[in-house]
């Protein structure tokens, strides 16, 4: 369904330090990193798309996180949600709701919500029972 998701960042190195361990714990492989542009991308498996990309906005203006947009990453186990949230907090993220069940969505929805250092809202969620 999706070709790619692009998140604008103001400080590429800070964003790379935030997203690299997050993608690793989620098992999402790096596809490229071009510091000269600057941008980086990770691909889903079996790939090559969709891609998750971070970088300086194309129009060279400051990134602007929206009210409502959120990127949610799928975790295969609840422990991965916990690990991803801990990594996000350790790398400059801000909590928007720690790991836990969200039965208002469905009985097995286990998710964590946080913002990256630029304020982009992210979620890591597991939909399967423990």
Task: Give a description of the structure.
The chain is of the alpha/beta class and 130 residues long. The chain has a single domain, classed as 2,3-Dihydroxybiphenyl 1,2-Dioxygenase, domain 1, CATH 3.10.180.10. The chain has two helices and eight strands. The chain has a four-stranded mixed beta sheet, covered by helices on one side. A hairpin with an 8-residue loop joins strand 6 and strand 7. Helix 1 (12-26) runs antiparallel to helix 2 (78-90). It is globular, with a radius of gyration of 14 Å. The mean pLDDT is 95.
Topology record:
Layout: E1 4-8, H1 12-26, E2 29-34, E3 39-43, E4 51-55, E5 71-74, H2 78-90, E6 94-101, E7 110-115, E8 121-126
Parallel strand pairs: 1-4, 5-8
Antiparallel strand pairs: 2-3, 3-4, 6-7, 7-8
Whole-Å distance between the termini? 28 Å
Spell the H/E element sequence: EHEEEEHEEE
Helix-residue proportion:
10-25%
Give the amount of beta strand, in percent.
25-35%
Q: If you consult CATH, what is the topology? A: 2,3-Dihydroxybiphenyl 1,2-Dioxygenase, domain 1
The assigned CATH architecture is Roll
Keyword list:
globular, 4-stranded mixed beta sheet, 8 strands, 2,3-Dihydroxybiphenyl 1,2-Dioxygenase, domain 1, 130 residues, alpha/beta
């Amino acid at each position: 369904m999706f070709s790619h998701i692009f998140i604008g960042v103001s400080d590429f190195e800070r964003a790379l330090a935030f997203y690299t361990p997050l993608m690793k714990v989620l098992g999402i492989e790096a596809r490229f990193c071009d510091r000269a542009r600057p941008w980086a991308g990770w691909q889903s498996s079996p790939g090559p798309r969709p891609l998750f990309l971070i970088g300086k906005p194309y129009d060279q203006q400051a990134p602007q996180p929206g009210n409502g947009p959120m990127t949610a990453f799928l975790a295969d186990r609840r422990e991965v949600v916990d690990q991803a949230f801990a990594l996000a907090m350790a790398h400059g993220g801000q909590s928007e709701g720690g790991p836990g069940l969200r039965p208002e969505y469905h009985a097995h929805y286990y998710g964590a919500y946080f913002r990256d250092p630029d304020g982009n809202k992210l979620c890591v969620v597991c939909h399967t029972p423990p």
